């Protein structure tokens, strides 16, 4: 089995080599109670950041905080970790509820002096069909629409916290298999678990590109936007896999052990986008294995990205405005 391990390391597991510190920086990570989100929190905490875990399961998140405090990343020894780590905080966020998104944003804006990095990491995959209380298909709202709203609400604070602020959207290479069905955005007529997931991951990339464009046109500097494929990782995101076919979750776990990244390896591209000095002046790009990757098909269509933006606004009962700063003020009023 050693040849498989060596092949994985050579082909798939580029590591973030930056030693950048984040002392004095505040990072918000959604879905940080487990999996890639938790390991990302561990890495950035080790770099001295104040890391906010925005999650819906508070008991699980408390356990994650204790685990992070007591177990450094593999690259850091325990003494260094204990003396140079940052802070950890928990905020409640349930992306299945747009009210919860607004409440979380309001709490962050009220209680945090600054927000420098936002990592939209939380996600679900192969979820059984259901709609949220807001009337949106669950996977689409959790993976895209909730993060879309959270980002818009936090942008004014990030603008005040700039320069060198970053927004990171965790996507997936699965986006290449689908287009977004704008005539059936909630997939009421054509739901399939993988289609739903892949559509939401394409939305992450399109959102990244369109947000980068609008920030640039509004002359809002100091906030860069990134999307990424973390790699196929054996995490809890596959827990609904049996909705695709029987034993899919078991097969995913088995394949993950043989061929996929472990969780720490799966965090590396997220960390790279968050801290690497070479990415500090880049925006709107898609990354894989700690480098810029090519996007394909609809992910390269700026009109498609603009259409998704407009549809997302409609689902949030917002009117897109040409003046982006005015638009953000309108979004902020939703919290009142």
Structural commentary:
The protein is α/β, with parallel strands linked by helices. It is built from twelve helices and eight strands. It has helices at 2-11, 35-46, 58-70, 78-84, 98-111, 138-161, 193-217, 248-259, 263-266, 268-275, 302-315, 324-332; strands spanning 26-30, 50-55, 87-92, 117-120, 165-170, 223-229, 285-288, 291-292. An eight-stranded mixed β-sheet has the order 3-2-1-4-5-6-7-8, with helices on both faces. A hairpin with a 2-residue loop joins strand 7 (285-288) and strand 8 (291-292). Helix 6 packs parallel to helix 7 and helix 7 (193-217) packs across helix 11 (302-315). It is globular.
Q: Helices, strands, pairings?
A:
Elements lengths: L1 H10 L14 E5 L4 H12 L3 E6 L2 H13 L7 H7 L2 E6 L5 H14 L5 E4 L17 H24 L3 E6 L22 H25 L5 E7 L18 H12 L3 H4 L1 H8 L9 E4 L2 E2 L9 H14 L8 H9 L4
Parallel strand pairs: 1-2, 1-4, 2-3, 4-5, 5-6, 6-7
Antiparallel strand pairs: 7-8
Helix pairs in contact: 5-6, 6-7, 6-12, 7-11
What overall geometry do the principal axes of the alpha carbons give?
globular
Strand content: 5-15%
Low-confidence runs (pLDDT<50, min 5 residues)? Answer: 1-10
Question: DSSP helix count?
Answer: 12
Helix/strand/pairing class, anyone? alpha/beta
Strand order in the largest sheet: 3-2-1-4-5-6-7-8
Describe the biggest sheet?
8 strands, mixed
SSE succession? HEHEHHEHEHEHEHHHEEHH
């Amino acid at each position: 089995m050693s040849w498989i391990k060596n092949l994985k390391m050579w082909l798939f597991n580029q590591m973030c080599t930056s030693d950048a510190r984040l002392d004095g920086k505040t990072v918000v990570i959604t879905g940080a109670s487990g999996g890639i989100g938790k390991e990302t929190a561990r890495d950035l905490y080790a770099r001295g950041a104040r890391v906010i875990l925005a999650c819906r399961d508070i008991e699980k998140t408390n356990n994650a905080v204790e685990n992070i405090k007591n177990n450094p990343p593999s690259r850091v020894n325990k003494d260094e970790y204990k003396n140079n780590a940052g802070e950890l905080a928990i905020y409640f966020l349930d992306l299945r509820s747009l009210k919860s998104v607004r409440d979380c944003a309001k709490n962050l804006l009220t209680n945090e002096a600054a927000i420098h990095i936002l990592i939209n990491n939380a996600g679900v995959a192969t979820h059984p069909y259901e709609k949220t209380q807001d009337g949106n298909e669950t996977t689409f709202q959790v993976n895209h629409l909730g993060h879309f709203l959270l980002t818009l609400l936090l942008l004014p604070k990030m603008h005040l916290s700039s320069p060198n602020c970053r927004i990171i959207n965790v996507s997936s290479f699965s986006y290449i298999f689908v287009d977004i069905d704008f005539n059936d955005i909630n997939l009421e007529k054509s739901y399939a678990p993988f289609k739903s997931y892949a559509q939401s991951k394409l939305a992450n990339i399109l959102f990244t590109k369109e947000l980068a464009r609008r920030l640039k046109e509004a002359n809002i500097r100091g906030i860069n936007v990134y999307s990424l494929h973390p790699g196929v990782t054996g995490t809890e995101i596959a827990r609904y896999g049996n909705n695709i076919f029987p034993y899919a979750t078991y097969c995913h776990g088995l394949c993950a052990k043989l061929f996929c990244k472990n969780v720490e390896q799966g965090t590396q591209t997220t960390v790279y986008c968050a801290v690497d000095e070479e990415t500090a002046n880049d925006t709107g790009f898609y990354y894989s294995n700690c480098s810029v990757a090519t996007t394909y098909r609809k992910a390269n269509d700026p009109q498609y990205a603009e259409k998704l933006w407009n549809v997302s606004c409609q689902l949030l009962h917002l009117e897109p405005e040409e003046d982006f700063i005015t638009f953000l003020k309108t979004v902020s009023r939703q919290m009142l």
